[in-house]
Amino acid sequence: MTGQDGATASPAATAELLAAMPTAAAVDEYWQRICREMTARAAEDAYERGQVDGYLLAIADVKAFQHGLVKDAELERRRWLLRCHRCRLAGPQAACRDCEARTRTTFGQPHPDDYPGTGQRCAA
Ligand SMILES: [Zn+2]
């Protein structure tokens, strides 16, 4: 039982262990209790990790949804933006005052830059 390499227990430690666990059943009970405690601790840790991961996933879903809303709102704004004549020809200008943000109901109304026509009617 005594060893010089430090890997074996000293006689005092061995006697202490034998006093604490005199029978094989006591040793089994001791190791089973340790295993139960380790399993319970691992389950608690996994549960907390799962809660944190689930929370982070939920937050990520909410953020993705919000970004989708912003992206959709920007698309909707661009859809109903009526470009002025200059922007139609030269491409969109930054902060153009002549382009008009329209709604679905007002989008079809004429823009002040629209071609006024010649005033002649077609002979039908
Ligand atoms: Zn414009």
Description:
The structure is a single chain. With 124 residues, this protein is mainly α. The chain has one domain (11-101). Helices cover 58% and strands 3% of the residues. A two-stranded antiparallel sheet has the order 1-2. It is rod-shaped and about 120 Å long. The N and C termini lie far apart (118 Å). 0% of the residues are buried. The model has no long low-confidence stretch (mean pLDDT 89). It binds zinc ion (ZN). Residues 83-84, 86-87, 93, 96, 98-99 line the site of zinc ion.
Entry summary:
The chain is mainly alpha-helical and 124 residues long. It is 58% helix and 3% strand.
Q: Main traits of this protein?
A:
single chain, 124 residues, mainly alpha, two-stranded antiparallel sheet, 2 strands, 58% helix, rod-shaped, binds zinc ion
What's the arrangement of secondary structure elements?
Blueprint: H1 11-20, H2 24-79, E1 81-82, H3 85-90, E2 100-101
Antiparallel strand pairs: 1-2
Bound molecules: zinc ion.
Kindly report how far apart the N and C termini lie. 118 Å
Task: Assign an overall shape.
Answer: rod-shaped
Q: What small molecules does this complex bind?
A: zinc ion
The gyration radius over C-alpha positions equals 40 Å
Q: N-to-C SSE series?
A: HHEHE
Our estimate of the beta-strand percent is under 5%
How many H/I helical runs?
A: 3
Number of strands: 2
Name the structural class. Answer: mainly alpha
Q: What ranges have pLDDT less than 50 throughout 5 or more consecutive residues?
A: none
